[in-house]
Amino acid sequence: MSSNPQDDADRIRLKRLAKLQTPSASPSPKPSASTSSTPSSGTPLPKPKPTPTQTPQKRPSEAPLPAPVPQKKKAPAAPAHLDLPTWEHETIGHVFNVTLSKEAAENSAWEVVWLKHLAAELEAEDPIAPRPIRLSVDIADRLLISRLELDPQSMSDDLEYVSVLASLPPGQTIFEYLLGSWKRINAAKSALNKKGYPPLEVEKANAVLEKLRDLVISYAGLTLQEPEMFPQPSGRAVGPPELVAPLLSLSTLTAPLLSTNSISPNSLSPTEVESFLQDLVKRFEPEGELDAVLGPVVCQLCFHESLFRPEGIAGSDASWRGVLSGLEALVSIKPIALMITRLPQWNPEGATAVNFEKVSLLGPLLRQGVFEREWPTIANTYFSRPKERSAPDLESATASLRGTLKSLQSSLFLVFNTLVRASPESREAVLQYFARVVTLNEKRAGMQVEPDTVASDSFMVNLQAIMFRFCEPFMDANFSKIDRIDALYYAHSNRINLKEETRINATSEQAETWRKEHEDPHASPPNFISDIYYLTLAMNHYGYQKTIDNFEELAKQYDEMNRHLEMLQGDGSWRGTIAAPRTEAAIKAVQNEQEQVLTQQYSYQVQLADPELVFRSISFVNFVSTWIIRLADPKHTHPNPPVELPLPKEVPVEFSVLPEYLLEDIANYHLYAVRSSPQSLELSGKAELLTWALTFLMSTWYIKNPFLKAKLVEVLFYACVPWSGRSGLLNSTLNSHPMALKYLIPALVHFYIEVEQTGASSQFYDKFNSRRNIAYLFKVIWDNPMHREALKNEARTKMEKFIRFVNLMNNDVTYLMDESLSEMSKIHEIQTEMADPSWATKPWQHRREREQTLRGLERHASGYTQLCNSTVSLLKLFTAETPEPFMAPEIVDRLAAMLDYNLDALVGPRCQELKVANPEKYKFNPKQLLSDILQVYLNLGVHGEFARAVAADGRSYRKELFERAAAIAQRRSLKSPQEIERLLLFVTKVEETKATLEAEEDLGEIPDEFLDPLMFTLMRDPVILPSSRAVLDRSTIKSHLLSDSTDPFNRMPLTLDDVTPNVELKERIDAFLAERQNKNTAYDKPAEEVVKMDIDAE
């Protein structure tokens, strides 16, 4: 060593600098072999500062101008050179933290590991080599193996070597040591590139570092595969878990809390993970060993214990986020993405519908959710006892969980999308994954499926959310990519099995024949758009839509519990009896069940009512409905321009063979959307919904299933029901959209007729539900003159069909009026019995039975009365607008008999039997019902055929009923004075017609000139109309003028004062009557005495 004091001071200072250097700093060797931790001699040593006396100072007056800055910082003309052997020796020692020199180890306080045995081996191999032996890349492999084989837990009789073993880091795993070496290689490379050495020297030095890197990475990969190959500390998880840990640290929640200062020198920081993975890929991917190295790591990450905890994504540590972050980092490297889809666990053979989400690689992440059945801890934590919670509290819980779900699904889509884009092979693997889920869950859409035999709702909905995102790029507003969807996909691909599926309008044999005709083994496989589109349709059917059905079933369960609760509570007479404890326990049990159902409903709403998911669902449904219409459109151009209706009678085969669930799922989702979140359709979707429904209502022969057709009307009905104090979603659209104005009336009339025969055993009752919906739709559009004109046109141009429609309407009113009034009578009977004082003395069992009977009657009555109200209302509207079809011989007599019979029930002697407590509970409004029936009489009263039919009704017609009805209408303000006057004039005409009929029996045929040309009754006071010169009875024209101030024959303006009495004709008529044999008829009394109003009638 030099004895120069200045050199000694420099050396001491450099030692201290080396001690303070961070792990990322590049070590610099010094001349002495015993000071390997000092900087390299290849790096210019810092020179001591020159003493001030070495440069004479000039006087101020002689001071030169300051030199330009560039001249002061001008780089040396020749760059420093790297002493490669020395740098190599010291760098290898620093990277591996080893030495072959005992003195060097002692000088480092045994922080540098002395490889005593290897040193002896090398010295024995080359006795004449300089001592200590220099480290080089040629012996790097032996150096590393020698270091890895050291076991700090082993015992040694070599006292000299005990210090080496004792100095080894306690508890450090092989993988941690190799990570430290890898990080020191990176630091050395960074330092080297900053030194400014000649490029050739840097290139040689980097080659050394790359050899070291390759060696370290090789052993790191080997350790991941066989962690027990080298001595490992006891009690530590070694191998794949050691790489899983830094992958978990990539979570967006934990990464910001980490910093380079808090990361161990022997572990990966979040910023180093990707670089380390890249090195592993570079080393093992070319040799095909990547699966063995990283496969276990991926599996342990994806099956991390945090994904199976009861608290799931609501856990406080949010470990699942780390799993997702680590997975994102892995798939971001293309070879690893490819490797993941090659692993057996990606799409495991032998998996079932139930366990697929637990044994497939991404299943544990995809099954995360909030639904109560799969994650009861989450649902009961966030939504326990919901009736006792405030609305803001529940909304806050919903928002919190919903945000977590969005984060989960967004990250999962990122993973799948990266896999799809990695290569054709990985894309195919993803498609096979989706198809496998569909195949395994084909029974999931069944009516009575056991949840424990199929995939969970959470798993299926998460997949659906991912697939919706895959569809977004080709679902643009202009439908520019719609034709890229292969219409013959089911023949060109076997991903989706349709053998057990019902087709829209084809048998299984027809569908199989079509498939064979179009399959082409040599054709290119369908494009990705087609694959994703059809798989999303299938996933929607087997997964998402079934989840919605499960949610809606909860509402039915809750309603059923409410009815059961009402039955248990009864009138409370059980209190204080021997049955009280049992009844109270039953009531409490039902209430607890209701709380649990509410909790389930709230947990479902977190996901299903998420505005983002609803928007994507509606966009997809709109796209599918447009695509289906385009397929049926002969021009295949819909929606630009829109399809022309009705469609051709010949149904395209490619449309017929489509699975029926395509149309069914569109209808079911629209039903769910308009009932649960109608606001989601406000901005988009209304026109598409209307177009889709009208297309197939106008062309019902395209759909074989009658229940599916009925759903089209049901969707339109619910879309017109008011919500949140606002008018129905489609109200405005139905009254303004060109397609609605042109096709809605014909479509509704057509389906009203068609639904009479569905072919199902329940068709008699099914038709009433559809016709109730149709009646409501007519009411929504009735005030629109364009729709009423369309109705008149339908009646004019298709009279035979319209008469059939009217006949069915009349049949419905007849049945529903009879059933509803009968139910009211039975309810009245039981309520009267219960109101009697003797009720309390009757046996408890008898009272319970009667109460149960009453509950059943109430359920039935409510349905019947609602159907009755809607149908009678429809009859009222149609008789006002298009009365002519009602005058058909096959209609008018039955219509009159039905009206007379029900008028008798409402105001006749039996009307007291219809009085029930709380009639609004059953939607029973006898006053409105009476008003509607009287309006039908008024609408048709100007037609002689109708008066004649009423007069001919010998079973129910009595003028006293009309007198009583008029009195009630006047007292209850059901009708205006003018309407009451018209009603009484009509009854007068009926009485006269009745007398005419009787006169015909006595005297034979009455001369035509004596008959009123409109009412076909014998005129009593004939008058002449001034413009048309037609002769009518005064009462007839008077009744007509009450509603229409024109001549009924030429539509010229007319008032009652304009008419002229036909005295000569009246005298002849009077003479004719005088000769009649029958007496005491309407013709034997003054007109004003024929009908009177019983103003005192109740």
Q: How would you sum up this structure, described in words?
A:
It comes from Obba rivulosa. One of its GO terms (cellular component) is nucleus. GO terms for molecular function: ubiquitin-ubiquitin ligase activity. With 1098 residues, the protein is mainly alpha-helical. It is 58% helix and 1% strand. A three-stranded antiparallel β-sheet has the order 4-3-5. Helix 23 runs antiparallel to helix 24, helix 23 crosses helix 27 and helix 34 packs antiparallel against helix 35. The longest helix has 42 residues. The radius of gyration is 46 Å and the shape is elongated.
Q: How many separate helices?
A: 43
What is the helical fraction, as a range of percent?
A: 55-70%
Number of strand elements: 5
Q: Spans of 5+ residues with little confidence (pLDDT < 50)?
A: 1-6, 8-69, 253-261
Q: Kindly estimate the percentage of residues that lie in beta strands according to DSSP.
A: under 5%
Structural class: mainly alpha
Determine Rg (CA atoms, Å). 46 Å
Mean pLDDT: 87
Major beta-sheet overview: 3 strands, antiparallel
Strand order of the largest sheet: 4-3-5
Anisotropy-based shape: elongated
Query: Cα distance, first to last residue?
Result: 132 Å
